[in-house]
Write a structure and sequence with these properties.
The longest helix has about 35 residues. The chain starts with a helix and ends in a 9-residue tail after the last helix. The protein has one domain. The protein is mainly α and about 170 residues long. The chain contains seven helices and no strands. The radius of gyration is 17 Å and the shape is elongated.
């Protein structure tokens, strides 16, 4: 199935989609694509806000703002997300998780990718409306979608039925 269709299906049934994502065996290339695509879309989601901020405060140019977002989302965020996935796996192990390092990575990276449409909406809202209640609402929804999908995905990943892939 296509990634776009699975992203929308993830919002309704995240554990089922996580099962499908893990059923293909260990595919580090696939996990890396989820991560990089998610980070790229998060970077793109920043553009409207960065443009709006550059218009409101021209002391820092749009190019400089984009450079900072590029550094953050394309170079630093993947490293932080790998670390966070490892810590979540260790935390799950403490509480009886039976998954693997790989399944914890896929759960986090897929959750990031699945939430990106909502972050794109949030970025668009920031660029058009700016600060305010609507931006807080879209940001809250995006964060809620990410957390809900990630929690359901990490529960499925640590359930133990995928641990043969270490």
């Amino acid at each position: 199935m296509g990634i776009a269709i699975d992203i929308v299906r993830t919002w309704r049934m995240p554990r089922v989609i996580m099962q499908l994502r893990l059923a293909g065996g260990v595919r580090e290339d696939r996990a890396l694509v989820y991560l990089l695509l998610g980070c790229l879309l998060m970077f793109i989601a920043q553009f409207p806000r960065l443009w709006h901020d550059a218009l409101v405060d021209p002391s820092l140019s749009f190019d400089m703002r984009v450079g900072g977002a590029l550094l953050g989302w394309i170079f630093l965020a993947p490293l932080g997300l790998y670390l966070f996935a490892a810590l979540s796996h260790v935390f799950a192990r403490i509480f009886g998780g039976q998954g693997s390092w790989y399944s914890a990575r896929v759960a986090l990276f897929w959750s990031l990718l699945a939430a990106t449409p909502w972050w794109l909406l949030n970025g668009l809202t920031a660029g058009i409306v700016g600060s305010g209640a609507l931006l807080s609402l879209t940001g809250g929804i995006a964060l809620l979608v990410f957390v809900a999908v990630w929690v359901a995905s990490i529960i499925e990943a640590e359930a133990g039925c995928h641990n043969q892939w270490t």
